C-alpha cells in the first residue's frame, strides 16, 4: 500500500518515515537474578511497533483495544504497524471507527517500508504465538533488535510470558523503566555461494562467489527437502575439519531454538542463558553421529560436497525459506553474541534479543506447562491420559 496519509473518520494512516529515529534502552544486569533491568536513559519510548498474528479475529480485536489504550493513556506514543496490518485497518475502517474509544480525536497509526520501521522502532509488541515473534524479529535481521514485549495469543507460547488480560500493567512497567529482560542469543548465518543456477541450464556454471548474511533467533536448517538422496556435508569447527556426514540435513540452533525443530530431531533442551550453539543431525546415516552442544565462541563452517547427488539443498532460517544451496556452497555459523577480542563469557548489549520477562524462572514453568516435561502416563489425580 502507499504510505501517503490515508484518513477514514477517526483513523489516520501516515508514513513512519517522518517519525524521529529510534532511541534504544540500556540493559543493566540485575544483582539478584540473571535478568537485566531495562533502563530508558532520557525519556520513555515514543515509537512502538505492534505486530500481530494474521487472520485471527480475537487478535485483531486485541490490536484495536491496545491501540485504544496507548492513544488514551500515552498520547505521546506513536503506534507503528506493518503495511499488511495497516491495510486491514483501512479495509475494516467502519468497524474500527466504531471501536475507537476516544471519538473526539483522530487516531493516527504509522506504517512504512520495513527499513523505515526498523529505523524508528524503540519497543516491539507482539500479539500472537511464537511464529509471530520469529516473523517480527526477522524484519530486524542484520540490525539491532529493540526490546520485545510479547503477549501469548497463538497456538504455542513458549516465548510469550505475558497474558493479554494484563497488557495495561505489563506495558506500564516497560514504559516506566521498571521491567526486566532476558537476553536471547541470535546466530549469524553467512552464506557463500560458489555457483549460479540457471533454470534453463541444469548444469551449474561457476561465477564470482557471492556472500550474504542473515540472523536466526531459533535455528538455521540445511535439508534435502523432497529430493531422494541424502545430503553430503563437510563440517569444520574453528577452521579444523571435524567430520563428513550423510544425512537428511543439519540443524544449527540457539538455546532458544533448542525447544523447536532441534528438539524434534533429538537435540538437547538448553536453557536460554547458556552460551552455546546446538548442532543436531537430521536422520544421519551413521547412528554414532549424535547431537552436539558447542561453545558460543565456535566458528562453524559446513561445505556442501561437490559429490552431492542432489543438485540443490534447502536452506531455512527460523522457518523462512532462503534461496537454495548447491554443491560447493558454504554456510558459516557464528554466535552474534561474541565480539572479536572480547571474553566469550561477556555479552554485548547491542547484540541478541532482549525479551521482556516475568521472572527468571519462566523457562522452568514453560517446560512443564507447555511441553509437559517428564510427564507420566497418569495425571496428578491418577486418571489415565487419553493418548
Summarize the structure in words.
By secondary structure, this protein is α+β, with helices and mostly antiparallel strands. It folds into two domains: 6-184, Probable inorganic polyphosphate/atp-NAD kinase, domain 1 (Rossmann fold, 3-Layer(aba) Sandwich); 187-335, Tumour Suppressor Smad4 (Sandwich). It has helices at residues 57-73, 83-91, 93-99, 114-120, 130-138, 167-175, 261-264, 362-369, and strands at 6-8, 11-15, 26-29, 36-39, 47-52, 78-80, 107-111, 123-128, 148-152, 180-184, 187-198, 201-216, 219-223, 231-237, 240-253, 276-284, 292-295, 300-304, 313-317, 320-325, 330-335, 353-357. The strands form three sheets. Strands 11, 12, 13, 14, 15, 16, 17, 18, 19, 20 and 21 form an eleven-stranded antiparallel β-sheet that branches. The longest helix is centred in the N-terminal third of the chain and has 17 residues, at 57-73. It starts with 5 loop residues before the first strand and ends in an 18-residue tail after the last helix.
Amino acid at each position: 500500500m502507499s504510505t501517503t496519509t490515508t484518513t477514514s473518520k477517526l483513523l489516520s494512516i501516515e508514513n513512519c518515515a517522518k517519525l524521529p529515529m529510534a532511541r534504544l534502552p540500556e540493559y543493566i544486569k540485575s544483582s539478584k537474578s540473571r535478568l537485566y533491568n531495562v533502563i530508558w536513559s532520557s525519556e520513555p519510548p515514543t515509537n512502538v511497533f505492534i505486530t500481530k498474528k494474521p487472520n485471527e479475529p480475537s487478535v485483531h480485536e486485541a490490536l484495536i483495544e491496545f491501540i485504544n489504550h496507548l492513544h488514551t493513556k500515552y498520547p505521546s506514543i506513536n503506534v507503528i504497524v506493518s503495511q499488511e496490518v495497516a491495510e486491514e485497518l483501512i479495509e475494516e475502517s467502519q468497524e474500527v471507527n466504531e471501536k475507537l474509544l476516544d471519538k473526539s480525536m483522530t487516531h493516527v497509526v504509522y506504517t512504512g517500508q520495513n527499513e523505515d520501521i526498523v529505523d524508528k522502532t524503540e519497543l516491539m509488541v507482539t500479539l500472537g504465538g511464537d511464529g509471530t515473534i520469529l516473523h517480527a524479529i526477522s524484519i530486524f535481521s542484520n540490525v539491532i533488535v529493540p526490546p520485545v514485549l510479547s503477549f501469548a495469543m497463538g497456538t504455542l507460547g513458549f516465548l510469550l510470558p505475558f497474558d493479554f488480560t494484563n497488557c495495561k500493567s505489563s506495558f506500564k512497567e516497560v514504559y516506566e523503566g521498571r521491567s526486566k529482560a532476558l537476553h536471547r542469543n541470535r546466530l549469524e548465518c553467512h552464506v557463500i555461494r560458489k555457483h549460479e543456477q540457471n533454470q534453463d541450464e541444469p548444469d551449474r556454471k561457476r561465477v564470482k562467489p557471492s556472500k550474504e548474511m542473515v540472523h536466526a533467533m531459533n535455528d538455521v536448517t540445511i535439508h534435502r527437502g523432497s529430493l531422494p538422496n541424502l545430503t553430503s556435508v563437510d563440517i569444520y569447527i574453528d577452521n579444523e575439519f571435524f567430520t563428513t556426514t550423510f544425512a537428511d540435513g543439519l540443524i544449527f540452533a540457539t538455546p532458544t531454538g533448542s525447544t523447536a525443530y532441534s528438539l524434534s530431531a533429538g537435540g538437547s533442551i538448553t536453557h536460554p542463558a547458556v552460551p552455546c550453539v546446538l548442532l543436531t543431525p537430521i536422520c544421519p546415516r551413521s547412528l554414532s553421529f549424535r547431537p552436539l552442544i558447542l561453545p558460543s565462541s565456535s566458528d562453524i563452517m559446513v561445505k556442501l560436497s561437490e559429490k552431492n547427488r542432489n543438485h540443490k539443498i534447502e536452506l531455512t532460517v527460523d522457518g523462512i525459506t532462503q534461496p537454495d544451496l548447491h554443491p560447493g556452497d558454504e554456510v558459516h555459523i557464528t554466535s552474534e553474541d561474541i565480539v572479536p577480542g572480547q571474553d566469550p563469557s561477556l555479552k554485548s548489549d547491542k547484540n541478541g534479543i532482549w525479551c521482556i520477562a516475568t521472572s527468571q524462572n519462566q523457562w522452568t514453568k514453560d517446560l512443564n506447562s507447555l511441553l509437559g516435561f517428564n510427564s507420566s502416563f497418569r495425571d496428578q489425580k491418577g486418571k489415565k491420559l487419553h493418548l
